[in-house]
């Protein structure tokens, strides 16, 4: 019984995080339901923690919200917080821009490592 209540609470927390991020992204429940290919009432139930979702649905939600599953599942873990602390600098970038920025940073890092005597 305790494990079942804890499980329900976890689904509710994940649903609250999904709702918060969806709203931050300017999406309605209807928008998300279309993208995820599920019913509007199912999205509502997920956000309220009333419904369990299949892994495939969870994955589509994370992808369509363009957010890591870590943020939805365990945002209080320090590694997750540190990973995404500076992510807002990229939040208005399209995927191609993010890829280019990552490539530039990798090249800069390699240059810095090869020139350690300079720094």
List the helices and strands and how they pair.
Elements: H1 2-24, H2 29-36, H3 40-47, H4 55-65, H5 69-73, H6 78-84, H7 95-114
Helix pairs in contact: 2-3
Tell me what the structure shows.
With 119 residues, this protein is an all-alpha fold. The protein has helices spanning 2-24, 29-36, 40-47, 55-65, 69-73, 78-84, 95-114. The protein is built from seven helices and no strands. α2 crosses α3 (40-47). The radius of gyration is 18 Å and the shape is elongated. The mean pLDDT is 84.
**Rg from Cα:** 18 Å
Label the overall shape.
Answer: elongated
Mean pLDDT: 84
- The number of distinct helices, counting runs of at least 4 residues, comes to 7
Cα-to-Cα separation, first versus last residue: 59 Å
Biggest sheet descriptor? none
Helices and strands, in order, run as HHHHHHH
Structural descriptors:
elongated; mainly alpha; 119 residues
At a glance:
The protein has 119 residues and is mainly α. The protein has 7 helices and no strands.
